[in-house]
Amino acid sequence: MAGQSSRIKGVNSKLAHTGNKPDEFFGFVNPPVVHASTVLFPDAATMASRSQKYVYGTRGTPTTDALATAIDALEGSAGTIIVPSGLAAVTIPLLAFLSAGDHVLIVDSVYSPTRNFANTMLKRLGVEVEYYEPLIGAGIADLIKPNTKVVFTESPGSNTFEMQDIPAIADAAHKAGAVVMMDNTWATPVYFKPLDYGVDISIHAATKYPAGHSDVLLGTVSANEQHWPKLHETFITLGCCAAPDDVYQVLRGLRTMGIRLEHHQKSTLEIARWLETQPSVSRVLHPALESHPGHTLWKRDFSGSSGIFSIVLKGGGKAKAHAFLDALEVFGLGYSWGGYESLAVHVNIDDRTVANGPYEGPILRLQIGLEDVEDLKEDIAAALAAAEAVAE
Ligand SMILES: Cc1ncc(COP(=O)(O)O)c(C=O)c1O
């Protein structure tokens, strides 16, 4: 039966064939979109014992099971929860594994709203929050305390794309009994499989490449065998389930994610290499470039790169950055990424405590979409010229 064959090994075969069971749904190739709160029971005894597969909409449906099964096949995980946004995919596991009096280590180049959650809600709940240098590697052992319960990683880091030595960090964390979490949105499980490198909990903003069309918000959290029961229990306790149409759209997006990623990767590398030759660009922050300080780690652990990176301009500040953005006509100005269209944003790293530079000029983040590379280069060239024309 397609979908369950042992011949499905490659990642693109998995993307095409996992998460659907046509034999269970009259042969239809895609699973049904189940809109449900109520589930009926055949009799009182079944109802009292809850001894049937589905019992209530918040706890899972054939639609959420389809996506979770597909993600498990990609991640190599024991279980996956599906939540309403990428940010919820960050906050729910942190709530699951941290309690008052615990200490959490979070990489300083983390996605800003993750930091905001830690600095507000986690601190209010009595958790001690500490940020660490992204390049720390095995040195994280020096920061681990008896009450360190979670080490949170994100590699490459948001906006500045520092690579982390995930196996070294996981090793040190595990020696101290801490849970290792990773926001793996940049690579997706196509280019990096966190659980194979010692991570316990893999987090994705499925809003980005899995959804791929800038129209859906969704998050997934996948756990290894040891940590799945607690993650699942917290998900049920919080009632933070996702809407069926969004879940279906992400499963649909997975079918083409492999080929979209290949296109993002190729166009992005071509543009990144070209940007390295532009006189007004000081640095290109993309780990797949040989010039990037994290390139060796990227090459060791990752099998590809996606479509978002940053450039640092040679000198100047906000006026130059705004001139660059305002001159763009193909790129949109927007905070998200992973969709089919190119986007740009002026990066702000003011909230960082350790990984804050120095940078020679403004940092501009570019998400390279599926447009033609020549059109994108022309747009960026016009933006660089506009930035150059600003006297600062
Ligand atoms: C690295 C990373 N993680 C998580 C998220 C959050 O995803 P969402 O927008 O679905 O909440 C984002 C969004 O930009 C992100 O860049």
TrEMBL record:
Belongs to the trans-sulfuration enzymes family. PANTHER family: CYSTATHIONINE BETA-LYASE-RELATED. GO terms for biological process: L-cysteine catabolic process to pyruvate; transsulfuration. Keywords: Lyase, Pyridoxal phosphate. The keyword Lyase applies. Gene3D superfamilies: Aspartate Aminotransferase, domain 1, Type I PLP-dependent aspartate aminotransferase-like (Major domain). It catalyses: L,L-cystathionine + H2O = L-homocysteine + pyruvate + NH4(+). Its EC number is 4.4.1.8. InterPro entries: Cys/Met-Metab_PyrdxlP-dep_enz, Cys_b_lyase_bac, PyrdxlP-dep_Trfase, PyrdxlP-dep_Trfase_major, PyrdxlP-dep_Trfase_small. This is Cystathionine beta-lyase. The modification N6-(pyridoxal phosphate)lysine is found at residue 208. Its cofactor is pyridoxal 5'-phosphate. It comes from Oryzicola mucosus. GO terms for molecular function: cysteine-S-conjugate beta-lyase activity; pyridoxal phosphate binding.
